[in-house]
Design goal:
two-stranded antiparallel sheet, mainly alpha, 3 helices, rod-shaped
Amino acid sequence: MESQTLAVFISLWEKGSENIPAGSTLAKAKELAPDAAIFAYGNFITVAINFILLALVVFMLVKTINRMRKTEAETPAEPVAPTTTEQLLSEIRDELKKK
Protein backbone atom coordinates (compact mmCIF):
# COMPACT_ATOMS: atom_id res chain seq x y z
CA MET A 1 0.00 0.00 0.00
CA GLU A 2 1.42 3.38 -0.98
CA SER A 3 1.64 6.19 1.51
CA GLN A 4 -0.63 9.17 1.05
CA THR A 5 1.90 11.82 -0.03
CA LEU A 6 1.75 14.59 -2.54
CA ALA A 7 3.31 13.40 -5.79
CA VAL A 8 4.70 16.82 -6.66
CA PHE A 9 8.26 17.13 -7.92
CA ILE A 10 10.66 19.21 -9.99
CA SER A 11 13.31 17.83 -12.29
CA LEU A 12 16.44 19.83 -11.49
CA TRP A 13 18.62 19.11 -14.54
CA GLU A 14 17.82 18.72 -18.19
CA LYS A 15 19.59 15.36 -18.33
CA GLY A 16 16.83 12.77 -18.49
CA SER A 17 14.03 15.23 -17.69
CA GLU A 18 12.85 15.30 -21.31
CA ASN A 19 11.71 11.69 -20.85
CA ILE A 20 9.30 12.65 -18.06
CA PRO A 21 5.83 13.60 -19.36
CA ALA A 22 3.94 16.39 -17.60
CA GLY A 23 1.58 15.19 -14.88
CA SER A 24 3.33 11.89 -14.20
CA THR A 25 3.68 10.55 -10.68
CA LEU A 26 6.94 10.62 -8.75
CA ALA A 27 7.38 6.86 -9.00
CA LYS A 28 6.76 6.96 -12.75
CA ALA A 29 9.23 9.86 -13.17
CA LYS A 30 11.93 7.95 -11.27
CA GLU A 31 11.25 4.91 -13.42
CA LEU A 32 11.38 6.81 -16.73
CA ALA A 33 14.48 8.87 -15.88
CA PRO A 34 16.57 7.14 -13.20
CA ASP A 35 19.54 9.47 -13.82
CA ALA A 36 17.53 12.69 -13.52
CA ALA A 37 17.83 14.71 -10.32
CA ILE A 38 14.30 15.02 -8.96
CA PHE A 39 13.39 17.23 -6.03
CA ALA A 40 10.21 15.78 -4.47
CA TYR A 41 8.88 18.76 -2.55
CA GLY A 42 5.47 17.12 -2.17
CA ASN A 43 6.98 14.64 0.29
CA PHE A 44 8.50 17.52 2.26
CA ILE A 45 5.13 19.29 2.47
CA THR A 46 3.46 16.08 3.67
CA VAL A 47 6.09 15.50 6.36
CA ALA A 48 5.87 19.15 7.49
CA ILE A 49 2.07 18.95 7.82
CA ASN A 50 2.33 15.67 9.75
CA PHE A 51 4.88 17.22 12.11
CA ILE A 52 2.72 20.29 12.74
CA LEU A 53 -0.34 18.15 13.46
CA LEU A 54 1.60 15.90 15.83
CA ALA A 55 3.12 18.91 17.61
CA LEU A 56 -0.35 20.43 18.02
CA VAL A 57 -1.72 17.21 19.54
CA VAL A 58 1.21 16.93 21.99
CA PHE A 59 0.85 20.63 22.92
CA MET A 60 -2.87 20.25 23.63
CA LEU A 61 -2.21 17.09 25.67
CA VAL A 62 0.44 18.80 27.83
CA LYS A 63 -1.77 21.87 28.23
CA THR A 64 -4.69 19.72 29.43
CA ILE A 65 -2.52 17.78 31.87
CA ASN A 66 -1.08 21.01 33.31
CA ARG A 67 -4.58 22.46 33.71
CA MET A 68 -5.71 19.34 35.58
CA ARG A 69 -2.67 19.50 37.87
CA LYS A 70 -3.33 23.17 38.59
CA THR A 71 -6.94 22.52 39.63
CA GLU A 72 -5.78 19.69 41.90
CA ALA A 73 -3.28 22.00 43.59
CA GLU A 74 -5.84 24.80 44.05
CA THR A 75 -8.42 22.66 45.84
CA PRO A 76 -7.90 23.22 49.56
CA ALA A 77 -7.12 20.23 51.69
CA GLU A 78 -9.53 19.36 54.44
CA PRO A 79 -8.46 20.77 57.78
CA VAL A 80 -6.78 18.23 59.99
CA ALA A 81 -8.76 17.31 63.09
CA PRO A 82 -7.04 18.32 66.33
CA THR A 83 -5.27 15.57 68.20
CA THR A 84 -6.47 14.42 71.61
CA THR A 85 -3.70 16.44 73.26
CA GLU A 86 -4.82 19.59 71.47
CA GLN A 87 -8.44 18.93 72.43
CA LEU A 88 -7.50 18.52 76.09
CA LEU A 89 -5.39 21.69 76.04
CA SER A 90 -8.29 23.58 74.43
CA GLU A 91 -10.66 22.38 77.15
CA ILE A 92 -8.19 23.42 79.86
CA ARG A 93 -7.81 26.85 78.23
CA ASP A 94 -11.58 27.29 78.04
CA GLU A 95 -11.97 26.32 81.69
CA LEU A 96 -9.27 28.80 82.74
CA LYS A 97 -10.98 31.57 80.75
CA LYS A 98 -14.24 30.91 82.60
CA LYS A 99 -12.58 31.47 85.99
